[in-house]
């Protein structure tokens, strides 16, 4: 495989991710059904697309989804500044939003996005993330649904990129340091 020389360690295989997405989908279905709600899934481009595609197969509700492109993340350091590159096409007033993210790192992106959704009159805002990197958090934000916790290392695959590469790997892996340092 083209990527093999640059991968240090596979953290989660495709099978593990699928199994976890199934569990999360079931939990989301139960929770929203119990509350009598149907979420509008908002996926943050581009990293969350493979996870969204996996997750929606396992949510047994009449859901819709929309996309937003918000952050600039050059290289491996979060910028702490959010710009809306592509806004939602759907009005969200009185909607129950479930934000779909690839990874929560500092939490800056999601804090800003969730505040914006509240300002626009969403009736609830919850978060589902494939990966959580709690060691680097700079805000109080926590996800409602988490696929896996990851250590403080730069990870790629299943949507996550390094300079737009590696997004299409069917697994999540740690990149060798010499590849990004
Ligand atoms: P935050 O605002 O610092 O939470 O950054 C979130 C965004 O940074 C994610 O949606 C990713 O696009 C990117 N990011 C954070 N950590 C990693 C990583 O380890 N690998 C790839 N992208 C990452
Ligand atoms: Mg992202």
**Terminus-to-terminus distance:** 23 Å
Structural class, by secondary structure, is: alpha/beta
Please provide the count of β strands.
9
Give the H and E element order.
Answer: EHEHEEEHEEEE
List keywords for this structure.
181 residues, alpha/beta, Rossmann fold, 23% helix, binds inosinic acid, binds magnesium ion
Task: Give your account of this protein's structure.
With 181 residues, the chain is of the alpha/beta class. It has one domain (14-152): Rossmann fold, CATH 3.40.50.2020. Helices cover 23% and strands 30% of the residues. The chain is built from three helices and nine strands, in the order E-H-E-H-E-E-E-H-E-E-E-E. The strands form two sheets. It has a six-stranded mixed sheet, sandwiched between helices. Helix 1 (14-35) crosses helix 2 (49-56). The two termini are 23 Å apart. Magnesium ion (MG) binds at residues 44, 47, 71, 102.
Question: What is this entry, summarized?
Answer:
This protein is α/β, with parallel strands linked by helices. It has helices at 14-35, 49-56, 108-119, and strands at 7-12, 39-44, 64-71, 82-86, 96-104, 124-132, 145-149, 155-156, 172-175.
Give the helix/strand layout:
Blueprint (H helix, E strand, L loop, with lengths): L6 E6 L1 H22 L3 E6 L4 H8 L7 E8 L10 E5 L9 E9 L3 H12 L4 E9 L12 E5 L5 E2 L15 E4 L6
């Amino acid at each position: 495989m083209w990527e093999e020389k640059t991968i240090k360690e596979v953290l989660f295989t495709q099978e593990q991710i699928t199994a976890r997405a199934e569990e999360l989908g079931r939990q989301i279905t139960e929770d929203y059904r119990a509350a009598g709600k149907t979420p509008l899934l908002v996926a943050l481009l581009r990293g969350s697309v493979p996870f969204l595609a996996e997750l929606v197969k396992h949510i047994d509700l009449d859901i819709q989804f929309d996309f937003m492109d918000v952050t600039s993340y050059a290289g491996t350091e979060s910028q702490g500044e959010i710009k809306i590159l592509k806004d939602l096409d759907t009005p969200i007033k009185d909607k129950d939003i479930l934000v779909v993210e690839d990874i929560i790192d500092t939490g800056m992106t999601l804090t800003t996005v969730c505040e914006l959704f509240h300002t626009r009159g969403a009736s609830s805002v919850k978060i589902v993330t494939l990966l959580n990197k709690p060691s680097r958090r700079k805000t109080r934000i926590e996800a409602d649904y988490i696929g896996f916790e990851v250590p403080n290392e730069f990870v790629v695959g299943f949507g996550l990129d390094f300079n737009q590469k590696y997004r299409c790997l069917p697994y999540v892996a740690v990149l060798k340091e010499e590849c990004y340092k």
